[in-house]
Amino acid sequence: GRSTSLLNLCISGEERGRDRDALMRGVNSNKSVEVFELYNHFDFDVSLLDNFIANNPKLESLTLDGNNIGDDGVVTLMKSLANHPQLNNLSLGSNNIGRVGCVALSSMQNCASGCGWVVPCLVQLDLSYNRIDDTGLEALASSLAGSTTLKRLDISSNTLITSSGLRSLSALLHSENCRLEDLHLESMPIGDDGTDALAAGLAGNMSVKRLMFSSDVAGITESGWSSFSRLLCDTSSINSIHKSNHTLKQIGETVLTAVPRDHDLRYYLKLNKTTTTKLYGTAQRTAQIKILMHHLDLDIEPFCVYKLKFLPLL
């Protein structure tokens, strides 16, 4: 408890009750912690973190998985984090967080003094294995739409979320600020309505590269897979192909286990992955290949000169 120069601190579930609380009081004088992790303490009072968080202005990563802090704990925590704009990782998995907690998390958007984002540098947010519902997700997505740094969002195993909630993600995915690259929805019954909602949200999005879910519980049929296929290559017209998503590279755990065999979606995902590298080029190159795939008689060279800024009406 006399150390004042700790950089990383992890307290596992092996430290219980009085020992854990005494340890927390002992490290309160430390002012240099950058990474703090507290796992699986079901009886933990999150208010014990108030002084610790206040005394460690350099805190960049906070993991509190499996502590059952609930909605009230999130409310308390967000007040403590108001003076930590450099925080880039916040993990609150398995904490019984519901609608009220999501509304509290949405306060990340604005602090009381109107200074903008409370955590403007947040890169990763993990809210997996909680009890978030559609209303909670809608509040959270609306708030996160203002983030220019968030790259990874994990809401896996929040089984109360339906297609209506997934549709609210469009607020984030369609935002001009969106930098999200990884969206995790593992262990959730997405269904075909959910795939329609996700496809609508990802239409026009140019940042998300990986959409992760568990195919064995997702409940997606041919109709749902076709929605994803149209997202990556809408063959209704040349312009529709050009405006399709050429950024998404992975759907499900792996293409081999998630996407049905011989489905066009497999090829489109592979195309997005192999033609948007430094070796092969950009999404424009992917669009060109997709157009030629479905319009073999088209002389596309004149349009490539202008980087597909205009296209023939076919």
Report on this structure.
- There is one protein chain.
- This protein is α/β, with parallel strands linked by helices and 314 residues long.
- The protein has 15 helices and nine strands.
- It has helices at residues 17-26, 49-54, 70-80, 99-105, 134-144, 163-167, 170-173, 191-202, 215-218, 222-232, 238-242, 255-258, 264-274, 283-294, 301-305; strands spanning 8-11, 35-38, 61-63, 89-91, 124-126, 152-154, 182-184, 210-212, 250-251.
- Strands 1-2-3-4-5-6-7-8-9 form a nine-stranded parallel beta sheet, with no helix packed on it.
- Strand 1 (8-11), helix 1 and strand 2 (35-38) form a beta-alpha-beta unit.
- The N and C termini lie far apart (73 Å).
- The relative contact order is 0.07.
- Residues 111-116 have low confidence and may be disordered.
Quick synopsis:
The protein contains 15 helices and nine strands. The chain is of the alpha/beta class and 314 residues long.
Topology:
Blueprint: E1 8-11, H1 17-26, E2 35-38, H2 49-54, E3 61-63, H3 70-80, E4 89-91, H4 99-105, E5 124-126, H5 134-144, E6 152-154, H6 163-167, H7 170-173, E7 182-184, H8 191-202, E8 210-212, H9 215-218, H10 222-232, H11 238-242, E9 250-251, H12 255-258, H13 264-274, H14 283-294, H15 301-305
Parallel strand pairs: 1-2, 2-3, 3-4, 4-5, 5-6, 6-7, 7-8, 8-9
> H/E series, N to C?
EHEHEHEHEHEHHEHEHHHEHHHH
Uncertain regions: pLDDT < 50 for 5+ in a row? 111-116
Subunit arrangement of the protein = single chain
Mean pLDDT: 86
For the sheet with most strands, the description reads: 9 strands, parallel
Strand order of the largest sheet: 1-2-3-4-5-6-7-8-9
Distance between the termini: 73 Å
From the alpha carbons, calculate the radius of gyration and give it in angstroms: 22 Å
Q: What share of the residues does DSSP label as strand, in percent?
A: 5-15%
